[in-house]
Amino acid sequence: MSETLITMGIERRITFVIGQGGFASWKLNRLKTLSGFFRSVVILQNITTGEKANTEHVLKVISLGIQQNALCQLRIEGSDAELACMVLTDFVADQFDIVNTAHKRNPTHCDLMIEQHPAFHLPCHVEYVFESISVNAEVSKEDMLSKLSRIVSVTHQETINDALLKREAVSSTYIGHRIALPHIMIKEINLPTLVVFKLNKAINWGQSAHEVSLIIALFIPAPPTIEVVKVCTKTTRSLLNSNNCHLLTSSTQPEAIKAILFHFMARDMPSLTWD
User: Fold this and answer.
1) CA-to-CA distance for 175 and 186, rounded, in angstroms?
2) Which of 33, 29, 53, 35 is nearest to 43 (CA)?
3) 195/250 Cα distance (integer angstroms)
4) Could you tell me if residue 193 is left (phi over 0), alpha (psi between -120 and 50 degrees) or otherwise beta?
């Protein structure tokens, strides 16, 4: 069954990290067998490298080169995706380090994984805030910037908001693919902070062609350490890739979005041992 055959239907995702045993061939064959019981298409995505393949094609899956500590995702789409997700979640949980599944959310487990697993290890602490926001036609970019400022610091809200507005006046932080990346460096921030707003529908980001449904805001303390600079640079560079952007905008689970972003920030960095 081709990945392109099913364009509509239920979609479910399972996000996980490859452990010390890797993705052995027998695991691939087991995954293929289990996926074959369902009418849904099951796609395995290697988020670390951006490669993906239909689980029906074992050789193509092998070519993904999935290594230990790679962040992966099963995307299941079709009429029986809910049932397939339940079964495949059990398989993934037995063989790998599961981060999140649409079958059963566990934010506490996800936070613990991101805090301790080497696939997400950062050289500095990054504060993280996520909000799902319902918007109406009257909501503007300025409204979102004001809300960002209030979340980051009630005490310095006005100063931070002014800095965000000045940054937008220099050039729009719309980066395409319905994503905006507001970012400032300011002394009123003590810790690097990443704030994500997922909107229920797109809003205008200053120009009619700039429709935004995902806001990823970076607040950097001034002056920043070299570790903070590296982490923030990895974040912005990852969003230059259209596949990465699509992965984030199409994700509905907050835990998956957090895992993807922290993995982007952690790639190619020395990591801790996962006990």
Assistant:
1) 22
2) 53
3) 18
4) beta
Structure tokens at 30: 């087991």
The CA angle 232-234-240, to the nearest 5 degrees, is 110
Residue type, 216: I
The dihedral through the CA atoms of 169, 171, 175, 178 has a sign that is: positive
**Per-residue pLDDT reduced to its tens digit, 170-224:** 999 999 999 999 999 999 999 999 999 999 999 999 877 899 999 999 999 999 9
DSSP assigned state of 225: P
Classify burial at 173, counting beta carbons within 10 Å of its beta carbon; exposed 0-12, middle 13-18, buried 19 or more. buried
What is the spatial distance between Cα 86 and Cα 108, in angstroms, rounded to a whole number?
20
Q: What tokens appear for 41 in the block?
A: 């298409």
Q: What are the CA-CA distances from residue 152 to residues 113, 186, 190, 194 (Å)?
A: 24, 12, 10, 9
pLDDT digit string (tens) for 6-53?
A: 445 799 999 999 998 888 889 999 999 999 999 999 999 999 999 999
Name residue, tokens 């969003």. Answer: 239
Token reading at 177: 């693919």
The number of beta carbons lying within 10 Å of the beta carbon of residue 105 is 14
Give the distance from CA 107 to its chain's centroid.
14
Which of 129, 109, 115 is CA-nearest to residue 274?
A: 115
Residue 145 CB burial class (10 angstroms; 0-12, 13-18, ≥19): buried
Please, which residues bridge with residue 97 across strands?
Answer: 17
